[in-house]
Amino acid sequence: MMDQYQKARLRMVQEQLLSRDIVDQRVLKTMEEVPRHWFVDDAMRVRAYGDHPLPIGAGQTISQPYIVASMTQSLRLKGDETVLEIGTGSGYQAAVLSRLCRQVYTVERVNSLLVSARKVFDKLRYYNIQAKFDDGTLGWPEKGPFDAIIVTAGGPEIPEPLVEQLSENGRLIIPVGDQHVQELQLLEKKDGRVTVTTLAGVRFVNLVGKYGWSR
Ligand code: SAH
After folding, report:
1. Which residues form a coiled coil (predicted)?
2. Which of 20, 75, 188, 198 has a C-alpha 20 to 30 A away from that of 176?
3. Which atom of ligand 1 is nearest to the CA of 137?
């Protein structure tokens, strides 16, 4: 898609992703294409491609481009997967995922954010995203199992329902820690067994819900 922000997007990919450890060509190409500035307020558009998170209202944030790329890359998507996201927020992460797999399900607990994210999905005609208002720590059992699950808010532990809804050979990525700093944990299910690898240190907003923080 050609637009006035395309240069900024190319620069973002060069300077923030390629220069670090993003090597998945499909992820790089997708982030060159998805118009990130559509997912932030008008007043913030000029900063949409900067190397930082941005506020999106309701005390929440859209993650830094590199974090979106890194978490997406860790899911190793090939194209035919069903993916669950917890924490729709602006919708940007879901939009990126939707270009890389068959179907995205995303759950958000702040209704105003969900409503604006849905509008952007429609405007972009990203029709393989289904979004609902709920506590995402419960997952979305009717739509599972999922080949990949991504949680974009930080919790005290990995919510058990999400582990249950992950398919065999599935990957789940989630920031786990206290309410200030977390580390990204990558959980994989193989032969019915679960392994957890710890990746980078990160800072996310709170995962609030039955299997998250109380506020
Ligand atoms: N993926 C988003 C990031 C948004 S920040 C993006 O690309 O913009 C994290 C989001 O998680 C916030 O919108 C917050 O409201 C939401 N959240 C926190 N706890 C949640 C829960 N239990 N279920 C669903 N969403 C939750």
Report:
1. none
2. 20
3. 22
The total number of structural domains that make up the chain: 1
Using a 6 Å cutoff on CB, does residue 114 contact ligand 1? no
CB-ligand 1 contact for 205 (6 Å cutoff): yes
Rounded CA-CA distance 36/63 in Å is 11
63 is catalytic: yes
- Residue 11 within any structural domain of the chain: no
Residue 159 near residue 212 (C-beta atoms within 8 A):
yes
Cα–Cα dist 133/87, whole Å: 10
With respect to residue 135, please indicate whether it lies within any of the assigned structural domains: yes
Does this model's pTM top 0.85? My answer is yes
Strand partners, 150: 85, 173
Residue 191 CA to ligand 1 center (angstroms) comes to 31
For ligand 1, whether the C-beta of 138 sits within 6 Å is: no
Q: How far apart are CA 139 and CA 31, in angstroms?
A: 26
Distance 183 CA to ligand 1 centre (A): 17
Mean pLDDT by 10 residues, the chain (215 residues): 86 98 98 97 95 94 97 98 98 98 98 98 98 98 98 98 98 97 97 94 97 96
Is there a domain that residue 14 lies in?
no
